[in-house]
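Entry:
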Amino acid sequence: MSDPLYERLQRLKRTRQVRGEEPSTGTTAVGVTGGVEAVGKSSGDEADASLTRLGFRSPSSGIRERRVFRRIGADAQRIRRLCEPPGGYLVPGDGKPLLFFDAETTGLSAGAGTVAFLVGAARVISDDTIEVVQLLLPDYPFEPEFLARTADLLTADSRLVSYNGKSFDTHVLRSRFLQSGCVWDEPHQIDLLYSTRRLWSAVLSDCRLSTVEACVLGVERELDLPGSEVPERYFAFLDTGAGEVMREVIAHHEQDMVSLVRLLAAIEDVLDAAPDNANASVMPSDPIGVARMLAPYDVERAIGILRRRVDSSGPFGGGPAAMVMLAGLLKRRGKHSEAAEIWSVLFRYGCSELAGVELAKHLEHRERDFEAALAVCEGIIGVCGASTPSLDHRRARLLRKIAGSPSS
């Protein structure tokens, strides 16, 4: 199978051979590419020294490892409590340690040729401190060893917490493990991107982690660079051996994991504070999103949030979406008449076809008002401009009931 990174490395080697360069030469600036100063290949000792200045050590012959400790205050204590019974809304509280995981890769697609070159995990070690471990792939031939160390770091007896990790980071790792013939017993994963979208997508310009950091967590990065520039920095490192070109990548990666710890604590705080967002310690969230997240755990609290949203500014309040959700939760709790009142309002104003269908069901099966239910079905067809097989079936059944025939 073709591997773009391997092919690129081979091209670099051929280029040096044409120029008459040895695989390891002194460092001499030769130009600037993509904002990164290009230098000649450093010697092995010089490359190791440059990585050492960034805090990396060589626990084995190939990979490089960096460990740092960050004090983050009360958020660390909050996370420790979540791991214990009864847990939180996103964390089961089963005693499994949480690993806040992130990976930097050679491309922004999850294709087979994309390689994870920097993998890290943060864990809480005290009531105010976390430990961050970063593994760096110094060259492509060491990938099997790098993957084996990654498997040791991200063990199955832990629980991963990521941001878009389910659809990208772990997908890339899974592909590399498969191609390398290495084994990874992948842990269960909590992806905070989905919860973030539910809580803040309505109030943020986008849900990139940098946006969430700035607007929700109040975090301002000192050393950072756009994610699109990260692969080029790594390729510059492979070409030159100069660890300094990776300084901002390392800082970016470390901060991602620290922010994941803070974000999980913030999400749990928002859900704890609902329905009174004023008690939350972070940016106010979308009440509809909060209700959607709370519904599987506490239907009554979710209903309370939606009632306030609907009743606070007229018959539609937070909009048809809030009313549809509220009616559905009321139905789940057996409050069918209240749900029917909401469906009736939505249907009358043509805001929801679903509301019309639910209203027709209520009128037919609970009120036994077949003519009213038939009128609602006819109204749905009039609004939509066409019928559907399910509506045709319902109309036929209602006509038989009105005529006194046995129901089908």
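Strands lie at 29-33, 36-39, 56-57, 64-71, 98-105, 116-124, 129-136, 159-162, 188-191.
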